[in-house]
Amino acid sequence: MSLRDTDRKVRKGASFARQVESFAKATKERANEVVRKTALGLLANVVESSPVDTGRFRGNWQVGIGTRPSGTTETEDKDGSGVVTAAASQLEAAKLGDTVYLTNNLPYARRLEFGHSAQAPRGMVRVALANRREILAEAVKDTKEGGGT
User: Fold this and answer.
1) pLDDT tens, position by position, for the chain (149 residues)?
2) Residues 6+ apart with CB under 8 A from 8
3) Distance of alpha carbon 57 from alpha carbon 53, whole angstroms
4) CA gap 132, 128 in Å, rounded
């Protein structure tokens, strides 16, 4: 239920308890949406800034909710769109309070993060985390404007 629907019920005389319950539910739904959009924004930044040769490194970014993904994939995704699309689907289950893991388990991922590639001399994860406030602000803005995940 949206805040607009809640306001409409208030004007129609719904009980105070139901009004508070409705507001709390709408607020929780919005908070969950911000969590999902923030996690997806961080992942998209990491994937986009990842160096690319064959696309295997970009294709190995994985998302986990509550548990860190293990293993690697054979996926090659030069532009990263497949990884981001798959993550968006997985992140639909994420909610406020969950731990969301973004990981790349290829053996050379750590070297790339710490400047081994001229394509990403400052890394990927560290750069995305440096931009976390902007990513969160964009997620909040988009949620307020009613954009879906």
Assistant:
1) 566 776 666 666 667 777 788 888 889 999 999 999 999 999 999 999 999 999 999 999 999 999 999 999 999 999 999 999 999 999 999 999 999 999 999 999 999 999 999 999 999 999 999 999 999 999 999 999 986 65
2) none
3) 8
4) 6
Query: Residue 39 and residue 113: Cα distance in Å, rounded?
Result: 19
Of 149, 19, 39, 29, the C-alpha closest to 102 is 39
3-state secondary structure of 102: strand
The candidate with the shortest Cα–Cα distance to 35, out of 149, 131, 146, 145, is 149
Q: Please, what is the Cα angle at 25 between 24 and 30, to 5 degrees?
A: 95
Closest CA to 41 of 137, 113, 110: 137
**Size (the chain), residues:** 149
Residue 29: HSE in the Cβ half-sphere, 13 Å Cα cutoff: 14
Alpha carbon of residue 24 to chain centroid: 23
Distance from C-alpha of 82 to C-alpha of 10, rounded to nearest angstrom: 44
pTM of the model: 0.84
